[in-house]
Specification:
Protein name: Alanine racemase
Number of helices: 11
Number of strands: 21
Cofactor: pyridoxal 5'-phosphate
Helix content: 25-40%
Pathway: Amino-acid biosynthesis; D-alanine biosynthesis; D-alanine from L-alanine: step 1/1
Largest sheet: 9 strands, parallel
Strand content: 25-35%
GO molecular function: alanine racemase activity; pyridoxal phosphate binding
Radius of gyration: 24 Å
Number of domains: 2
Shape: elongated
Distance between the termini: 25 Å
CATH architecture of the largest domain: Alpha-Beta Barrel
Bound molecules: pyridoxal-5'-phosphate
InterPro entries: Ala_racemase (IPR000821), Ala_racemase/Decarboxylase_C (IPR009006), Ala_racemase_C (IPR011079), Ala_racemase_N (IPR001608), Ala_racemase_pyridoxalP-BS (IPR020622), PLP-binding_barrel (IPR029066)
CATH topology of the largest domain: TIM Barrel
CATH superfamily of the largest domain: Alanine racemase
Low-confidence stretches: none
CATH class of the largest domain: Alpha Beta
Mean pLDDT: 96
């Protein structure tokens, strides 16, 4: 962007030192025999894929994960050499582009394998593939029990380098581990069948996302795919030693004193009970501050929690100032992050909006410039 990031006064500040500290923490959890894939899909969960990828690799991550070919190609074009796995369903054109850029791809259906083979022939390259088993997620992947000799035959095509066998958990962040255990069992059965039939396994076996990586060492195999924990957002209740990487700041645009009974915003969903002071913040749902946060959330100003009152509109929101707070136009507003003793996490906002921390950070819009710090 040609316009200085600071012009707007609203910024998402990403601490790459926190990302690196989280990588080191996760490496401690998995130990030296397991590799870490830093999942940087959706522009690094809204944090910026390239800076996060570079920081994570420098701290010891060995793989990168993206959802689609275009995301991997962007990293390659920026000079990233590390192995990159394209995790999601991609169409024939995307798979061909992925193979051209030396991205590993997921084979998740008979068609996807045909496309990969055709594409590999077309671009005259070998295709590095990871076979995805559906062990209970019900999304992409061949049924785990459907791994048979016909698949081994198809995967022995000369253009195919069989790099990995993988699956994905539906319930790793839930209290009840039963369904994840069942998924693990199906995955292990397929691994065992493969060992017997083929006499060898592909080099990489992987099942765990962030939650499973933190809580179940038995699911690490030799590669874990970590997204949300990398960004310091706890995937599970508990103390995991992760540091939130993203803070979101703005500035007070206007302060007004209002009479009791004054209404705020569209639909007049909030009315002042007493004489109050309100501050308008120039951030709205078009920036990714979800409309579901209306009358639910709080922001931090001068170390105080200030409740969001009335509806969040497209470009503005309004908060009530506590009596004790001496606030001025231009003062810093923390939408996400620390101010004094107070902290607002993506999980706090998620709870207020009835969603998950993943959605809070991935929805922060392109209108909010990202700035990068090396450490706090
Ligand atoms: C996004 C994704 C992950 C990362 O999940 P987190 O919960 O963010 O750690 C892992 N595996 C696959 C297949 C994914 O799509």
């Amino acid at each position: 962007m040609a316009i200085a990031a600071s012009l707007r006064g609203t910024v998402a500040s990403v601490n790459l030192g926190a990302i690196q500290s989280n990588v080191r923490r996760l490496l401690q959890v998995i130990g030296p025999d397991v590799a870490l894939m830093a999942v940087v899909k959706a522009d690094g969960y809204g944090h910026g894929a390239l800076p996060v990828a570079q920081a994570a690799l420098a701290a010891g991550a060995r793989w990168l994960g993206v959802a689609m070919a275009e995301e991997g190609i962007e990293l390659r074009e920026a000079g990233v050499q590390a192995p990159i796995l394209v995790l999601g369903p991609n169409n024939r054109e995307q798979l061909a582009a992925a193979i051209r850029y030396r991205l590993d791809v997921v084979v998740y259906s008979p068609e996807s394998l045909e496309w990969v083979i055709e594409a590999a022939q077309e671009v005259d390259r070998e295709a590095r593939v990871h076979l995805k088993l559906d062990t209970g997620m019900g999304r992409i992947g061949i049924p785990a029990a459907g791994l048979d000799e016909a698949w081994l035959e198809r995967l022995s095509h000369p253009r195919i380098v069989w790099q990995g066998l993988m699956s994905h958990l539906a319930d790793a962040d839930q209290d009840d581990p039963a369904s994840s255990r069942e998924q693990l069992k199906r995955f292990l059965d397929a691994v065992e069948w493969l060992r017997q039939k083929r006499g060898s396994l592909p080099p990489w076996l992987h099942l765990a996302n962030s939650a499973a990586t933190l809580r179940w060492p038995g699911m690490h195999f030799n590669l874990v795919r970590v997204g949300i924990a990398l960004y310091g957002i706890d995937p599970l209740p508990g103390e995991w030693g992760l540091r939130p990487a993203l803070s979101w700041y703005s500035r007070i645009a206007m302060i007004k004193a209002v009479e009791p009974g004054t209404s705020q915003g569209y639909g007049r969903t909030y009315r002042a009970r007493t004489a109050e002071r309100w501050a308008t913040i120039p951030v709205g749902y078009a920036d990714g501050y979800l409309r579901g946060l209306s009358n639910q959330a709080a922001v931090l100003i001068g170390g105080y929690r200030c409740p969001v009152i009335g509806r969040v509109s497209m470009d503005q929101l309004v908060v009530r100032l506590p009596e004790a707070l001496d606030a001025h136009v231009g003062d810093r507003v923390t939408l996400l992050g620390d101010d004094g003793e107070e902290r607002l996490t993506a999980n706090h906002l998620a709870e207020w909006a009835g969603t998950i921390g993943y959605e809070i950070v991935t929805r922060i819009g392109t209108r909010v410039p990202r700035e990068y710090l090396e450490d706090r």
